[in-house]
Design a protein that fits this description.
Belongs to the glycosyltransferase 2 family. GtrB subfamily. The chain is α/β, with parallel strands linked by helices and 348 residues long. Helix content is 51%, strand content 15%. Helix 3 links the parallel strand 2 and strand 3. Helix 2 packs parallel to helix 3 and helix 10 runs antiparallel to helix 11.
């Protein structure tokens, strides 16, 4: 029985890379106000990539249960210079599930993941493609150049999260890396073979290995609306990432237990020493109550940490689908007709 997977036959030469094409996966949730403008920029980018690299492109919009007109606008988007797929999920399953749905429906070789709020600049995609085709990188990921405009506590929390998740991990997750990244065909093939249902894409894309390169950028301001990714969502994603890619919380719980046990042992020795040397009676109830409350609180925290891992095991055992597709539509760009029209326009 083979426990690994061989993707060495999927080369990353420039000719083979361009021939396979690029799928751009964009999960959208209540992005009706800016979707048409984003699509126009994606189409302009597709024209540039076709001219420069002879690279065919498609865009896969995944509507994650939007409550506004996002789906109807996505249906109306034209296939100008690029094939268009619209995948509508049956409800809001979350961004990680939407990314997986886009990956499952991507038909071309390489896959680009980016957000639909306009903060991931489409113009940067050309640089990511260049690292893939010209330089031979399999994973080209982006990261925020700085967090100077973010609150101090948020910066501390982000740094602490990456320090904890990478504590003792063989494969580190780059700090400040986001979902905006390009994966080569063989990196995509590797990612598709990972069977877990509790998915953390940043971690999975790092875990598969291959040649990776970081590209720093400054996110653009949202053109419309406000983010729906609040503090609670960030906390949930952090817990998901920690329990998916690290046993650091369990190690921390064990370390805390050792510290408490050691402290209790030393405290007991000090009490015995005081009794035998001075004959004083140990004060009872206050210290006893404080000790019991401390130990009880720590035990509940440890039970909660273990419970998170048990909950993930239960979720994997139930093996429910990650998402359900309620609607799927496609529009295909006809390159020949577009080239003829461009030639006629130039002749006139």
């Amino acid at each position: 029985m083979t426990l690994g997977s061989d993707v060495s036959g999927m080369t990353t030469t420039a000719a083979s890379a361009a021939a396979k094409g690029l799928s751009i996966v964009i999960p959208v949730y209540n992005e009706a106000a800016g979707l048409a403008a984003l699509h126009e920029r994606i189409c302009d980018l597709a024209k540039t990539l076709r001219q420069r690299y002879r690279l065919g492109c498609e865009v896969v919009y995944v509507d994650d249960g939007s409550a506004d007109a996002t789906l109807s606008i996505a249906r109306s988007l034209p296939a100008d210079a690029i094939d268009v797929q619209v995948v509508s999920l049956s409800r809001n399953f979350g961004k990680e599930a939407a990314l997986m749905a886009g990956l499952d429906h991507a038909r071309l070789g390489a896959v680009m993941f980016m957000d639909g709020d306009g903060q991931h600049p489409p113009a940067l995609i050309e640089q990511l493609v260049r690292h893939w085709i010209d330089d031979g990188y399999d994973v080209v990921y982006t990261a925020k150049a700085h967090r100077d405009n973010e609150p101090f506590l948020r910066r501390v929390a982000v740094h602490g999260f990456y320090a904890l998740i990478n504590w003792g991990a063989r494969q580190k997750i780059p700090e400040d890396a986001g979902d905006f990244r390009l994966l080569s065909p063989r990196a995509v093939a590797a990612l598709r073979q990972l069977p877990e249902r509790n998915r953390f894409f940043k971690g999975l894309a790092s875990w598969i290995g291959f040649r990776q390169i970081r590209v720093d950028y400054e996110p653009a301001a949202r053109a419309h609306g406000v983010t729906t990714f609040n503090a609670a969502s960030l906390l949930g994603l952090s817990i998901e990432g920690l329990t998916s890619f690290s046993v650091a919380p369990l190690r921390f719980a064990s370390l805390l237990g050792v510290i408490l046990a050691g402290g209790a042992f030393l405290f007991g020795l000090s009490i015995l020493w005081e009794v035998f040397t001075t004959g004083k009676q140990v004060p009872g109830y206050p210290s006893l109550v404080v000790g019991l409350m401390t130990i009880g609180g720590v035990q509940l925290i440890m039970i909660g940490i273990v419970g998170e891992y048990i909950g993930k095991i239960l979720s994997e055992l139930k093996a429910r689908p990650i998402y359900f597709v309620a609607e799927h539509s496609e529009k295909h760009f006809e390159a020949g007709k577009a080239d003829d029209a461009a030639s006629r326009t130039a002749a006139e």
